[in-house]
Design a protein that fits this description.
One of its GO terms (molecular function) is nucleic acid binding. This is DDE_3 domain-containing protein. It comes from Caenorhabditis japonica. It is a single chain. With 147 residues, this protein is mainly alpha-helical. The chain has one domain: Nucleotidyltransferase, domain 5 (2-Layer Sandwich), CATH 3.30.420.10. 52% of the residues lie in helices and 5% in strands. The protein is built from seven helices and four strands; from the N terminus they run E-E-H-E-H-H-E-H-H-H-H. The protein has a two-stranded antiparallel sheet with strand order 1-2. Strands 3-4 form a two-stranded parallel ribbon. The mean pLDDT is 90.
Length: 147
Amino acid sequence: MIWGCFSDTSMGSLKRIVGTMDQYVYEEILENTIRPWARANLSRSWVFQQDNDPKHTSGHVANWFRRRRVDLLEWPSQSPDLNPIEHMWEELERGLKGVRASNANQKFAQLEAAWKSIPMTMAKTLLDSMPRRCQAVIDAKGYPTKY
């Protein structure tokens, strides 16, 4: 399992998850991966987007966001049409099509290389499409959209 993030100006690092990702593992990612990356790559005012997975919305993690004064994008409960990271995962899969790995470490190295090779124009295009995506979901009254 991997975890990743991006903005319109920078690809964040991928984080390899060994075992089960729970609220404590997620908080560790927020503190030791997101926080340093955000400080280095984002303005002082930024908004974090995540889905409503229980580990993301736990009281423990909510306290982390409050303590760190990180603004969260309000997120509908059923929203795969809106999540740009899903498109980035698809792009990552395309970048690794036909590539074989002999072990988990080699596979993760391949994933990292493919992640870093995704053009920033793709990230920017996905994020620029968010207003249209949101409107499409509103217009479809929560039902699936073309996205």
